[in-house]
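Subject line: Sequence and fold of a protein, written as C-alpha cells
Area: Proteins and the way their chains fold up in space.
Start of record: The labelled sequence and C-alpha cell lines come straight after this line.
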Amino acid sequence: MKIDTINNKKFYRVFDVCEKEDLKDLKKSIDLQFASNNIVWNWPLYQTKNNLHFTFKNNKPFNKLKNKIIKTVHTHIDKNLTLSTCWVNLSAEDNTYAFHTHHTPLTCVFYLQCKDSIYGTSLEKEQIIMPAIPNSVLMFEG
C-alpha cells in the first residue's frame, strides 16, 4: 500500500488488486449492467445504481474485490467502517462530472481499466488529479 499526504489529508493506494481473469469477469458483469439499462438517468452519464454490492452479491470476482478492499480498510484505516453504497462510473469523452463531496468517512475508487491515467479522480481542494491506474484502488476521506 502506498500512502500519500496532501494538504494534511491521507490518500491510500493499493495496486494489483485483482487477478487478470477476475478483471475480465468484472468487466463483463459491469458491461451487462450498462447493457441492461441498470443506470441512473438523473446523474452524469454512465453511472450504475448505487446498490451493486447487492446486485453482485453472488458474483465471485466482485466479492473477492469487495472483500479485499474491506480487509484493507479494516486493517490500515478504520476497523469500524462499513460499506454503504457501491456503483460504477464509465468515463467517456461526453461525461461531465462536477466537483462533489461524498458525505462518508471514506471513499474508495477502483480503477478497472483506463486508456489514459489523466482520467483519474480530480480533487478540487488539492488541485490535483489522482491518476487512474488500472487494477488499483484509491481511498480517501469522502
User: Anything to note?
Assistant: Helices lie at 20-35, 52-55, 60-76. The longest strand covers residues 9-15. Residues 60-76 form the longest helix (17 residues).
